Amino acid sequence: MVKEADTWALFIFGLALVGVFYPYNRGALFTALVVIYALTSGVAGYTAASFYHQLEGTNWVRNLLLTGCLFCGPLFLTFCFLNTVAIAYTATAALPFGTIVVIVLIWTLVTSPLLVLGGIAGKNSKAEFQAPVRTTKFPREIPPLPWYRKTVPQMAMAGFLPFSAIYIELYYIFASVWGHRIYTIYSILFIVFIILLIVTAFITVALTYFQLAAEDHEWWWRSFLCGGSTGVFIYGYCLYYYYERSDMSGFMQTSFFFGYMACICYGFFLMLGMVGFRAALFFVRHMYRSIKCE
Fold first, then answer.
1. Tens digits of per-residue pLDDT, 192-244?
2. Distance CA 23, CA 139 (A)
3. Cβ pair 30, 36 in contact under 8 A
4. C-alpha to C-alpha distance for 76 and 106, rounded to whole angstroms
5. Cβ distance 215 to 143 under 8 Å?
6. 122-153 as b/e: b if 16+ CB within 10 A
7. Which of the two ends of the chain, N or C, has the fewest CB atoms closer than 10 A to its terminal CB?
8. What are 137-150's pLDDT values in tens digits?
């Protein structure tokens, strides 16, 4: 799922850079988001099943179900609630029944089969997990650590720097999505996105190094959480934007803003978490291969 998010984002930026999206027609962008997400589901299935197979996992069906529902599940529940609110308010934001049927058919006839095909290909792949050194059967005891080396303080430090790199651009994006401004400088947005990925990778690698230097070997989930913590900062910015920069009010506007932004920030959390984990894994492999172990 998280690998699919990166591929999906790069496809969208590629189409935007070549001028496919007309700034005044947001429907084309939303259509592209749905179609490209469906077509890249095979990437998610292959990546998830292949890595799960490398870790000697056996329940690959459950792995594929989790891959397919990790993002779509919360998004579907949020959409059902918000669309019901829009219908209750008789607002034009409510999607018609025909459009919902088309989206369900795309998910059933395109997304799910591609996810399964990618999972089968990943399950049958010959790739092996490249461990840099042999590990012991019994993990070493982790020494007592100061409070600033715990998970939450590390997430705060890891999320602040990437968020500060995109802070200025966030206002223009929010004003375009939730306001009346038109965003046309996709090249600048693409550069900021690349900077976000690079800064996330580097800060996660740095924190992983300090964690290993403190003899704390449980870096796998820590690297994912630290990489994805920027999504938490972005959702915190949503609070600032809603109360200080926007004119939105009422239950419907509030629920739409915080509901859909929660899904977007959750998607950023998964995507950047994958970037952090992959960068940390690459760093750990390279570092331990360079060390002569007795």
1. 888 999 999 999 999 999 888 888 888 889 999 999 999 999 999 999 999 88
2. 55
3. no
4. 14
5. yes
6. bbeeeeeeeeeeeeeeeeeeeeeeeeeeeeee
7. C
8. 777 777 788 888 88
